[in-house]
TrEMBL record, chain A:
Signal peptide: none annotated. This is Queuine tRNA-ribosyltransferase catalytic subunit 1. It comes from Cyprinodon variegatus. Substrate binds at residues 120-124, 174, 217, 244. It is found in: Cytoplasm; Mitochondrion outer membrane. The keyword DNA-binding does not apply. Catalytic subunit of the queuine tRNA-ribosyltransferase (TGT) that catalyzes the base-exchange of a guanine (G) residue with queuine (Q) at position 34 (anticodon wobble position) in tRNAs with GU(N) anticodons (tRNA-Asp, -Asn, -His and -Tyr), resulting in the hypermodified nucleoside queuosine (7-(((4,5-cis-dihydroxy-2-cyclopenten-1-yl)amino)methyl)-7-deazaguanosine). Catalysis occurs through a double-displacement mechanism. The nucleophile active site attacks the C1' of nucleotide 34 to detach the guanine base from the RNA, forming a covalent enzyme-RNA intermediate. It is a peripheral membrane protein. The gene is QTRT1. Gene3D superfamilies: Queuine tRNA-ribosyltransferase-like. It catalyses: guanosine(34) in tRNA + queuine = queuosine(34) in tRNA + guanine.
Automatic annotation (TrEMBL), chain B:
It is found in: Cytoplasm; Mitochondrion outer membrane. One of its GO terms (molecular function) is metal ion binding. GO terms for cellular component: mitochondrial outer membrane. Binds 1 zinc ion per subunit. Zn(2+) binds at residues 353, 355, 358, 384. The gene is QTRT2. The lineage of its organism: Eukaryota, Metazoa, Chordata, Craniata, Vertebrata. Residues 18-411 form the tRNA-guanine(15) transglycosylase-like domain. It comes from the Eukaryota. This is Queuine tRNA-ribosyltransferase accessory subunit 2. It is a peripheral membrane protein. GO terms for biological process: tRNA modification.
Length: 417, 418
C-alpha cells in the first residue's frame, strides 16, 4: 500500500516549472527528494540530503546554542536518531569566536558532531538579547555584552561567521521585526530583508558545501508576505524559511501566514518554519506543508522538570509524582523511560543535575519520535488519521481543541472528529 | 557472625606497604567480588553526579560497589517504604553492590546536632535526626548489600577535647550494639553486611580502644572515620591508622572515610587501608578541573614522567599543600580547565587517556563549556575524572603486586613541586 510518489508527479502545490528548473541548477550541497505527499493535506515526507548526512523530513531540529545540547553528549544525540541540530551564530561568534572554531575545523570539529548543523544569522538573538541594537541599511549595530565595544553585524559579517562555523545550512541575515508590530516598519523590514538576502548570497564563500536559506518576512500582512515571497523565490537559494512568526502573535494569524507561504514556495525546495516546536503546532504545520522546525522549548523546559508526553506534559518535580513508580511515558522507548520511574526522577531532582539530563533525553526523544511517526504516516498515506489520533490523545475532549488548529486543519481538508 | 558473608582473600601483605587481595562473596547473593585496595563508586541517590547510565557506562573500569548515603536518602524514606524494592531497584541499578554510609563525604555536615541517642544527616530539605531505631528502619527500606553502622563522628576538628572524643567512642559503640541487635533479628537484612565504625579523633589511646572494642563485635569489616582531609596532617593520620589497623583482624576489610587525594590514598594504603570512597573525582569536577596526575609504573623513565606539564606553568593557582583545610580547593593532581591557556589547546584532557571525553573532545571545547556554564562540562569532566581515578586504583594494585609502590608514588607526586 505504498503511497510513495515520485517528486515529478502531480503537483498539488502552486508552482511553476520555472522554479523546478532553477532548482536543478542550484546548490549541489543540497538535494530534496520527495518520498511521499499526503493526498489530503499539504504534508510531505522528503529525504533532504545535506553535506553530512541525509535528513528524513518532517524533522524537528534540537537547539544547541553554545555548541552543546544541554548536558547531552553528541553520542547520546546521535543515539536518539538526531540528524541535524542548531548552533547559534551570535553566541558562538562571541564565545569562543570564529578564529578558534576555524582552528578546530569548524563547529562540527569543535563539538565533534558528525551529522548536520544549521546556524541562524545571529540577528534574532541580537534583537532579542541585546538592548542597544540599532538597525540600519548597513546591518544591526549592537554593543558587545562582554567588552562594550560597538559591533556591526552586516549580512556579509553574518555569512562570514557562518562560513567559519561551517554549518550545512546557513540563514540569511534578516531585518527582524516583532510579529506584533504593524505599519510601515514591517514593510521596510521586508524590503530590507530582500536586499540583505542578495548581499548574503554574494557573500557566501562556500556555496558548494554550505546552503544558504532565505527567510520570508512580511509580518502578519498577507500582501507583504506575498510580495516577499514573489521576490525571494526568484533567488537561487537552496531552501526557504518562514520567519517573523511564533513571536507572540495570534495563532489565527500565525497559521494563515504559514499556509500562505507554503502555497507559494517551490515544491522542490525545503521549507523551514522557524521557532516552532510545540507538538500540536508541529503536526498542524506539517499539514500546512512545512518540512523543518526548531525550538528551544523541549530542552529548556526539561531543565525545570517538564517532560513532554502524548497527553501534554508532566511536571516531574510536582509532589504527586513522588510515589509514582511508572516511567514518564510507559510507551516511550527512550533510555530514561526504559530505566527510570517518575518517582526516582522526582527524588533525583533534589540531589543531582543528572535528573535534568534524563528529562532532556526524554524530551528530545519525544520530539524526534513524534516527527518519525508523522513521516511514517505520510509515507503510508494515513496522515489524516494520524492527526485524528494525535489530537484525541493530546486533548481530553473535542471542545478543548484549539480553534486555530481546527481551522488550520480544515483548510487542508481535515475535519477533526 | 550473623549475616556476614564477605570474605577477604589477601594475596599479599607487605608490612608498611599495604594489602593486596580480593574481597569475595560480596552482595546479598554473594555474587560479587571487589579488588583490594579498591574504591567505591560515588553517587547521589545511586546516580553518579552529572551522569546517566549511558554516559556512565562509557567508562570501562567501573568499580563493583555503588556508594549511597543516608544523607541523600533519609528524606525519601516514605517513598522507599512504599516502593518496597529497595534503592537499587528504585534507582534503576542492576548489577552492582550497594553500600550505604551515613554521611556524604563531599558535602559539608554542620556540627553541634549530635546527642547521646541521635545523629543528624542533612539532605535537600534540611536536617533529619536519626535514632538507632530510625537508622535501622532506613536500612531496611534502602536494602543495601552492606552498610556502615550509626556513628558519632563529630570529633574530627582539631582541638576537640579528650572528653568529647571519649564520648564519641562510647556512643559509637553503643550505636553499633543497638544496630547489631536489630540487624541480627531482622529478616530483611539477612545476608547484609554491617561495618563497625572506628572513632577516636586524634587521640591514640581512644583510637586503639575504639578499634579493639569494635573488633569484638560481629561485624564484617570496619569504617575508619574522622581521618578526612583537613582533620589532621598525613604523618599523624598514618600513625593513627597504623595503630588502629594493628588492632583489627587481618581477615576483615577496612574502609577509610573522607580521604581521596591521590598522595593521601597512597599513604593510607601503606598504613593498611583496603577501601576508599570515590568522591574525589566529583570534587575535582565541581571546581572545573580534570585529574591529570600520572600513575604510570612502567620502568622506562621517559614514560614514568607525564608527557605534558599540565599545570606547572599555572603554579599560582595551584594548591600544593598536603594539608589543605578546604576540600573545595584545587589540588596539584588536576588541571584547571577554566584557565585561559586551554582556550586554544586542542589536545585531549590527558594524552593517552581512553575515556569518552578524551577520545572525543579537546581541552579547548571543555574550556568553552565551562566558560559558558554549559552542563556538558560537568558530564565530560565527570567521565574523565571517574575513569582516571579508578584507573589509579588499578595502578595501586599493580604496584603492590610488583613491588613498585615507590615508583608509583614518584609518578603521582611528579606533577607537584618535587
Ligand atoms: Zn522517554
Ligand atoms: Zn580522559
Amino acid at each position: 500500500m505504498s503511497a510513495t510518489r515520485n517528486s515529478e508527479a502531480d503537483g498539488n502545490m502552486k508552482e511553476s516549472s520555472m522554479h523546478f528548473k532553477k532548482a536543478l541548477s542550484a546548490a549541489p550541497a543540497l538535494s530534496l527528494k520527495i518520498i511521499a505527499e499526503c493526498p489530503v493535506t499539504k504534508a510531505r515526507a522528503c529525504d533532504l540530503t545535506l553535506p553530512h548526512c541525509t535528513v528524513s523530513t518532517p524533522v524537528f531540529m534540537p537547539v544547541g546554542t553554545q555548541g552543546t545540547l544541554k548536558g547531552i553528549t553528541v553520542d547520546q544525540l546521535e543515539g536518539l536518531g538526531c540528524q541535524i541540530c542548531l548552533g547559534n551564530t551570535y553566541h558562538l561568534g562571541m564565545r569562543p569566536g570564529t578564529e578558534l572554531i576555524e582552528k578546530a575545523n569548524g563547529l562540527h570539529g569543535f563539538m565533534n558532531w558528525k551529522r548536520n548543523l544549521l546556524t541562524d544569522s545571529g540577528g534574532f538573538q541580537m534583537v532579542s538579547l541585546v538592548e542597544l541594537s540599532e538597525v540600519t541599511e548597513e546591518g544591526v549595530k549592537f554593543k558587545s555584552p562582554y567588552d562594550g565595544k560597538e559591533i556591526l553585524l552586516s549580512p556579509e559579517k553574518s555569512i562570514s561567521i557562518q562560513n567559519s562555523l561551517g554549518s550545512d545550512i546557513m540563514m540569511q541575515l534578516d531585518d527582524v521585526v516583532s510579529s506584533t508590530v504593524k505599519g510601515p516598519r514591517v514593510e521596510e523590514a521586508m524590503h530590507r530583508s530582500i536586499r540583505w538576502l542578495d548581499r548574503c548570497i554574494a557573500a557566501n564563500k562556500h556555496p558548494d558545501k554550505q546552503n544558504l536559506f532565505a527567510i520570508i518576512q512580511g509580518g502578519l500582512n498577507a500582501e507583504l508576505r506575498k510580495a516577499c515571497l514573489d521576490e525571494m523565490i526568484q533567488r537561487d537559494v537552496p531552501g526557504f524559511a518562514i520567519g517573523g512568526l511564533s513571536g507572540g502573535e495570534e495563532k489565527d494569524d500565525f497559521w494563515r501566514m504559514v499556509t500562505l507561504s507554503t502555497d507559494y514556495l517551490p515544491r522542490e525546495k525545503p521549507r523551514y518554519l522557524m521557532g516552532v516546536g510545540y507538538a500540536v503546532d508541529l503536526v498542524v504545520c506539517v499539514a500546512l506543508g512545512c518540512d523543518m522546525f526548531d525550538c528551544v522549548f523541549p530542552t529548556r523546559t526539561a531543565r525545570f522538570g517538564s517532560a513532554l508526553v502524548p497527553w501534554g506534559s508532566l511536571q516531574v518535580k510536582q509532589k504527586q509524582y513522588a510515589k509514582d513508580f511508572q516511567p514518564i511515558d510507559p510507551d516511550c522507548q527512550c533510555p530514561t523511560c526504559k530505566r527510570h520511574s517518575r518517582a526516582y526522577l522526582h527524588a533525583l531532582f533534589k540531589s543531582d543535575t543528572a535528573a535534568m539530563h534524563h528529562i532532556t533525553i526524554h524530551n528530545i526523544a519525544y520530539q524526534l519520535t513524534l516527527m518519525r511517526s508523522v513521516r511514517q504516516s505520510i509515507v503510508e498515506g494515513r496522515f489524516p488519521e494520524f492527526i485524528q489520533t494525535f489530537m484525541k490523545r493530546m486533548f481530553p475532549s473535542r471542545d478543548q481543541y484549539p480553534s486555530w488548529a481546527v481551522d488550520a486543519l480544515a483548510s487542508v481538508n481535515v475535519t477533526l472528529e | 557472625m550473623a549475616g556476614s558473608r564477605m570474605k577477604l582473600d589477601l594475596s599479599r601483605v607487605v608490612q608498611g606497604r599495604g594489602r593486596l587481595g580480593l574481597l569475595k562473596e560480596v552482595g546479598r547473593m554473594g555474587q560479587h567480588s571487589v579488588d583490594i585496595p579498591g574504591c567505591l563508586l560515588y553517587t547521589h541517590l545511586g546516580s553518579v553526579p552529572h551522569l546517566t547510565q549511558d554516559t556512565l557506562h562509557t567508562i570501562s573500569c567501573l568499580p563493583a560497589v555503588t556508594h549511597v548515603t543516608l544523607s541523600n536518602m533519609a528524606e525519601h524514606q516514605e517513598v522507599l517504604e512504599e516502593f518496597k524494592g529497595g534503592l537499587k531497584k528504585f534507582a534503576g541499578l542492576h548489577d552492582t553492590v550497594l553500600y550505604c554510609s551515613l554521611h556524604d563525604p563531599a558535602a559539608h555536615c554542620p556540627t553541634g546536632h549530635t546527642t547521646n541517642k541521635t545523629v543528624s544527616v542533612w539532605g535537600s530539605g534540611g536536617r533529619i535526626e536519626l535514632t538507632a531505631a530510625k537508622f535501622m528502619a532506613l536500612q531496611k527500606t534502602v536494602q543495601p548489600d552492606w552498610y556502615q553502622s550509626m556513628a558519632d563522628g563529630e570529633t574530627w576538628q582539631t582541638g576537640t577535647s579528650r572528653k568529647r572524643v571519649r564520648k564519641s567512642v562510647d556512643r559509637t559503640l553503643a550505636h553499633l550494639d543497638e544496630c547489631l541487635t536489630v540487624h541480627q533479628k531482622s529478616q530483611d537484612l539477612e545476608g547484609v553486611d554491617i561495618f563497625g565504625v572506628v572513632e577516636g579523633g586524634d587521640i591514640l589511646e581512644e583510637r586503639v580502644r575504639s578499634a579493639r572494642e569494635t573488633a569484638k563485635r560481629p561485624v564484617a569489616g570496619f569504617c575508619l572515620d574522622g581521618f578526612q582531609t583537613g582533620a589532621m596532617d598525613q604523618a599523624l593520620r598514618s600513625q593513627l591508622i597504623t595503630a588502629v589497623t594493628q588492632e583489627l583482624p587481618e581477615d576483615k576489610p577496612r574502609l577509610l572515610q573522607g580521604v581521596g587525594r591521590p598522595d593521601e590514598v597512597l599513604e593510607c594504603v601503606e598504613a593498611g587501608i583496603d577501601l576508599f570512597e570515590g568522591f574525589f573525582p566529583f570534587q575535582a569536577t565541581e571546581r572545573g578541573c580534570a585529574l591529570c596526575f600520572s600513575f604510570d609504573i612502567t620502568p622506562n623513565p621517559e614514560r614514568a614522567a607525564p608527557d605534558e606539564e599540565p599545570h606547572t606553568a599555572g603554579g599560582t593557582q595551584l594548591n600544593g599543600d598536603v594539608n589543605c583545610d578546604d576540600q573545595t580547593h584545587m589540588t596539584r593532581f588536576e588541571m584547571n580547565l577554566k584557565d585561559k591557556r586551554y582556550q586554544d589547546d586542542f589536545r585531549p584532557l590527558v594524552e593517552g587517556c581512553g575515556c569518552y571525553c578524551c577520545r572525543n573532545h579537546q581541552r579547548a571545547y571543555v574550556h568553552h563549556l565551562l566558560m559558558t556554564n554549559e552542563l556538558l562540562a560537568g558530564v565530560l569532566l565527570m567521565i574523565h575524572n571517574t575513569c582516571h581515578y579508578h584507573s589509579f586504583f588499578r595502578a595501586i594494585r599493580e604496584a603492590l603486586a610488583n613491588d613498585k609502590m615507590d615508583l608509583l608514588r614518584r609518578s603521582v607526586l611528579w606533577n607537584g613541586k618535587e
